[in-house]
Design brief:
The complex is a heterodimer of chains A (376) and B (167).
Chain A (H helix, E strand, L loop, with lengths): L1 H28 L4 E16 L10 E14 L4 E10 L3 E14 L2 E9 L22 H5 L5 E11 L4 E9 L2 E4 L2 E2 L22 E9 L5 E11 L1 E2 L10 E13 L2 E13 L1 H8 L6 E12 L8 E16 L10 E14 L2 E12 L6 E11 L1
Parallel strand pairs in A: 8-12
Antiparallel strand pairs in A: 1-2, 1-19, 2-3, 3-4, 4-5, 5-6, 6-7, 7-10, 8-9, 10-11, 11-13, 13-14, 14-15, 15-16, 16-17, 17-18, 18-19
Chain B lengths: L1 H23 L7 H15 L4 E5 L2 E9 L2 E12 L4 E9 L4 E8 L11 H9 L12 H27 L3
Antiparallel strand pairs in B: 1-2, 2-3, 3-4, 4-5
Classes of the chains: A mainly beta (376), B alpha+beta (167).
Chain lengths: 376, 167
């Protein structure tokens, strides 16, 4: 007993310098260290309505996305970030998995599976950060969100100039996989996303983004992407398309008023050869834009926010076609009005009503969407 | 026998408590580099030589004096961003008016927009709750608003107790 106590005391004294050393290290480095846990999710209800606003077909209730964020901060220089995503409950993906190494105060080297910095929603995709139950369709058909590929890049901030910048080298989307085309006239590049799953590489592509936050209330962004799609047939140029995508966006906040807009243009080269080889109908130019304005009617009255918003959106995956006539059904317009009720910055109920149409017909389809959005 | 058995155990228990307390209340200590960055800003703000001494409220809050008169106060403070902490500097006048805010270190990849000087200047002229949101930095904006108003309150209260009541 006596011996045990003495050993304990001796051990305690030994532990003092160890524990203090640990504290000192933490203090010098500053910031949190260790495991970081978070996540986000959206649970949606989508209903198609007839002219009398009654359900005219089966609706859908879906745990659309449930993402767990796991990070580990080794020290003030090195952080690992990962996001594991369950989509529609049964599909499992890795949405991000990269090591972030701080070269200097405001600049990091990043390597791994990363988000392509194109437009607003591919980077800021946590559901409570945007209005509307579903992501904008410009960010589905033109920018294939959640667009992520494996690569290496830098990410930094210039405080004096109020600029954020990102530049990366990544693998491109897989356009041709053992005889079949992954790109299509209807969905553009969407089918080619490799998502870091045994990705095929024949060419490296480049992506970058600059954003300027020096004007009070405003945040401006400019994004670009340049490269070639990947192919499983290393020798055949006709199985690849050249991709040049550019985007500009702006977000504005002033008291209860908020607005955002985005314009994305993609030029695809070699589509004649690609379409001839694969039988696809890929357009040579893809274009999409949206404008959205919202107003928080609870501003100054409550901690919660009730945002009433409206959005006009057009996206055309056949803006131009090479060697065949454009399909007018791919020139699509969505008009959306809705409500976002934020209980907190990380939790919201959403509801919106959409009118969707295409240039191919004068008919509009009506949709009601209801959703739960969380981020923690 | 009782003394020999019980006392060492109590000692061990006390030591353990002290160590736990030490860990729990471990004070954030800014690096020397950060401290000199802050002091450079203070120098620019007042444009006069000064000496500083930590106040009893927090070892990272300092009273700045020149020729025995109080010039103002500087506070180094941490606040949470989404998954990490960021550090900022607050400079107060001798009557506890907020004169300057500056982000000293922002560690996360998202939300660094709060370092924008024009945005930070709003805190000097309008009530904290009226400070505008920044798209893409909502979490850090809310955190900054909360911590700055907390700091303002703490400094004002301290000032009340230490200076105004003694006069």
């Amino acid at each position: 007993m006596k011996l045990k106590s003495h050993i304990l005391i001796a051990l305690s004294f030994l532990a003092i310098p160890l524990i203090q050393a640990q504290n000192t290290a933490e203090n010098i480095l500053g910031g949190k260290e260790g495991l970081i846990i978070g996540g986000y999710g959206q649970i949606d209800g989508n209903f198609n309505l007839d002219d009398d606003n009654k359900m005219n077909s089966n609706g859908k209730l879906d745990v659309h996305r449930l993402v767990t964020f796991l990070g580990y901060k080794f020290n003030d220089k090195a952080t690992f970030v990962s996001e594991l995503e369950y989509e529609h409950v049964v599909e499992l993906y890795v949405e991000q998995a990269f090591l972030d190494y701080k070269i200097k105060d405001n600049m990091s080297l990043q390597a791994g599976l990363m988000l392509i910095p194109m437009g607003i929603q591919n980077l800021y995709h946590e559901p409570p950060t945007f209005n509307g139950v579903e992501r904008t369709n410009v960010d589905k058909y033109i920018v294939p969100t959640t667009w992520r590929e494996i690569g290496v890049g830098i990410n930094g901030r210039l405080d004096e100039q109020s600029i954020n910048y990102q530049l990366m080298m990544v693998n491109g989307p897989l356009g041709y996989d053992n005889g079949s085309a992954n790109f299509s006239g209807k969905k553009g590049l969407r089918g080619g996303r490799q998502k870091g799953a045994e990705a095929t590489v024949s060419d490296f592509d480049f992506a970058g983004r600059l954003s300027y936050f020096g004007m009070l209330g405003w945040n401006f962004g400019a994004s670009f992407y340049k490269g070639n799609s990947e192919t499983s047939d290393f020798e055949a140029d006709s199985t690849q398309v050249g991709i040049t995508m550019m985007g500009v966006d702006a977000r504005y906040n002033n008291g209860p008023f908020q607005a955002r807009g985005q314009y994305i243009l993609a030029n695809l080269e070699n589509t004649v050869e690609y379409n001839a080889k694969t039988g696809a109908d890929v357009g040579s130019k893809l274009l999409g834009y949206y404008l959205e304005a919202g107003y928080n009617v609870l501003d100054g009255k409550s901690e919660n926010e009730l945002i009433v918003f409206g959005r006009y959106e057009n996206y055309n995956t056949h803006e131009e076609t090479d060697g065949f006539d454009a399909n007018a059904a791919y020139d699509r317009t969505d008009k959306t009005v809705g409500l976002t009720y934020k209980l907190n910055q990380g939790a919201a109920f959403k509801a919106d009503y959409q009118l969707k149409s295409t240039e191919a017909s004068s008919e509009e389809t009506k949709h009601l969407n209801l959703g739960v959005a969380v981020w923690f | 026998m009782l003394i020999k058995r019980v006392v060492p155990n109590i000692l061990v228990g006390m030591l353990f408590l002290v160590l736990c307390a030490n860990k729990a209340y471990a004070q954030w200590v800014p690096s020397d580099k950060m401290l000199s960055k802050a002091e450079l800003s203070v120098q620019k703000q007042f444009n006069i030589d000064y000496s500083k001494s930590a106040i009893d409220l927090n070892p990272n809050y300092y009273e700045l004096t020149t020729n025995d008169s109080i010039l103002g106060y500087m506070c180094l403070q941490q606040a949470p961003s989404k998954h990490d902490m960021f550090d900022f500097l607050a400079i107060y006048s001798s009557d506890m008016k907020l004169l300057k805010l500056q982000i000293l270190a922002y560690r996360e990849n998202y939300g660094g927009e709060i370092a924008n000087k024009r945005w930070l200047k709003q805190f000097l002229t309008r009530p904290t709750e009226k400070v505008q949101a920044i798209s893409g930095a909502t979490i850090s904006v809310e955190s900054m608003k909360m911590v700055v108003s907390f700091l303002n309150q703490k400094m004002k209260n301290w000032h009340q107790v230490h200076h105004l009541t003694s006069k």
